[in-house]
Structures are given as structure tokens and as C-alpha cells.
Design the sequence.
């Protein structure tokens, strides 16, 4: 498997990082996961924007070429080499270079890009549980991926133990926040709802695009802090991330209304099919 490490292509088994690297010592960075499809990276501009937001929050300085057309070209070349240009999962990990203890010595970064072939997203509705072991919390680093990864690992372990297909995470106040790796939306009385970022949820790439689509279509949409009981009253509840949109069929065994026609319309509008 080929990787890109600080712009240099190499075999994955050739990668050597010192034990003092801040990725190991402090998880001092973030990551982006994107989908490569038919020789393009879905929502690439939105991924660039979230990387910039993450870097600002962590006081990191991204290389200028992260925002140049040639960078995307290099990532797509890597996808081509890994037979993932038709459909693949791209992961870009960015972390602080240099040493230091909790107080770092630089704002410069190291970065690593990998791409692997992936299976197309399933549209089968999910049966989910409500996570009991961990809660989300809003902070300056809660809206992007990386710093809070152990939270989602523990949610994944609970999902496995309870034999659910996904887990609904609540905030420390008990509000709906997100799923393990997806934003959650629900439609009620022709108004679309999604958790406010104050719930501690990640500001997902498809979340941004759905909100943008709603504004263009004059579809009423609200970012809210509400308890999970409201989901059982909805006309449709669905999960959304860069891989696609998937309905939710039940929550802790309680059935949720389905509206696959609405979800398919949304998938087409966002070119997720």
C-alpha cells in the first residue's frame, strides 16, 4: 500500500515515526475522512474549510499547498495507484510537528494521506441504540474529528456489546448530539431539524451541505437542543455523512417512521448516489 507522508510517496511499511512524535504522545492533531468517487473527491472544498477550522482551533499552520489544486491532484493520483479512484475512502491525518510536553514548540505540522478501496454505501435503514457509557460536550475542538476520538471508540464498543447498527450519542445535558460517525437529522411537520453544535456534535461535511441545500430550496431547517423523545414523533429520521444518507428504522427497539422517497430525493440533490 502506498501512502503520502509529508508529500513524499512511500510504502506504508516504510513509515517510521519516533516514539516522541506528538501524534503518539498527545494526539495533537485532527483528521479528515473523504470519499473518492469516479476520479473526484466528494465535497473537497468543504473538507478544506473544515481542515482550516481545525487548524485554527489547534493553533496549527497548514502548508499553503493544502489549498492548491495540485494537492487534490496528488491525492487522486494516490487513489489511482491504490485502485480506489472509482470508489475509495481517503483519510488525511494532520498533527503537530516538533517536541515539547503539553506546551508545544511549533505550529508546523506533519501529515499523512492514505486511500483504500471501499464498498458503496448501504441505504438499508438502521436499528440504533442510545449510548449510555459516554456523552458529548461542546468545546472549541468538538466540531471536527480527532481530539475526541476515544469517545467514538467507546460508543463503538457499546454498539458491539448491545448488537446495534449504530449508537445515538447524547450531550452531557441529555440532548440529541450525533451518531457514532454521522450527523443526525429528523423531519417533523415539514421542518428539518438537526442538533446545534452546542450539543458537542461534529460539524459534518454532509451536515453543511444539507443546511446549504435547505437554504437554497427555502426548506425550513432548525439547529436545536432537544431530547431523544422528539425523534419518535418525527416523520423521518436519518443519518448523514460523506458516505451517504441512511434512514433510521428504530431507536432502542421503538419503531421510527420511514420516508425513503424523501431520503432518495435528498441523496440525488447532494449527488450521493
Sequence:
Amino acid at each position: 500500500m502506498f501512502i503520502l507522508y509529508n508529500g513524499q510517496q512511500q510504502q506504508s511499511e516504510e513509515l517510521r515515526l519516533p516514539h516522541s512524535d506528538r501524534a503518539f504522545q498527545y494526539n495533537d492533531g485532527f483528521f479528515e475522512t473523504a470519499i473518492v468517487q469516479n476520479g473526484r473527491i466528494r465535497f473537497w472544498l468543504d473538507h478544506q474549510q473544515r481542515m482550516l477550522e481545525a487548524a485554527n482551533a489547534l493553533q496549527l499552520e497548514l502548508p499553503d499547498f493544502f489549498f492548491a489544486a495540485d494537492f487534490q491532484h496528488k491525492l487522486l493520483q494516490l487513489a489511482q495507484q491504490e485502485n480506489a479512484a472509482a470508489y475509495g475512502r481517503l483519510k488525511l491525518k494532520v498533527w503537530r510537528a516538533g517536541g515539547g510536553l503539553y506546551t508545544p514548540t511549533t505550529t508546523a505540522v506533519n501529515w499523512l494521506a492514505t486511500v483504500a478501496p471501499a464498498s458503496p454505501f448501504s441505504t438499508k435503514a438502521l436499528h440504533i441504540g442510545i449510548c449510555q457509557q459516554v456523552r458529548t460536550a461542546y468545546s472549541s475542538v468538538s466540531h471536527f474529528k480527532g481530539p475526541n476520538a476515544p469517545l467514538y471508540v467507546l460508543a463503538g464498543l457499546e454498539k458491539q456489546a448491545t448488537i446495534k447498527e449504530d449508537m445515538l450519542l447524547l450531550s452531557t445535558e441529555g440532548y440529541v448530539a450525533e451518531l457514532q460517525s454521522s450527523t443526525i437529522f429528523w423531519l417533523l411537520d415539514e421542518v428539518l431539524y438537526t442538533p446545534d453544535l452546542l450539543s458537542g456534535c461534529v460539524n459534518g461535511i454532509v451536515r453543511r451541505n444539507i443546511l446549504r441545500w435547505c437554504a437554497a430550496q427555502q426548506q425550513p431547517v432548525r439547529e436545536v437542543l432537544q431530547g431523544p423523545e422528539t425523534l419518535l414523533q418525527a416523520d423521518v429520521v436519518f443519518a448523514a455523512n460523506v458516505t451517504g444518507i441512511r434512514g433510521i428504522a428504530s431507536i432502542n427497539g421503538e419503531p421510527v417512521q420511514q420516508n425513503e422517497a424523501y431520503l432518495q430525493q435528498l441523496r440525488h440533490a447532494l449527488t450521493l448516489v
DSSP finds six helices and 15 strands in the chain. The chain has a mean pLDDT of 96.
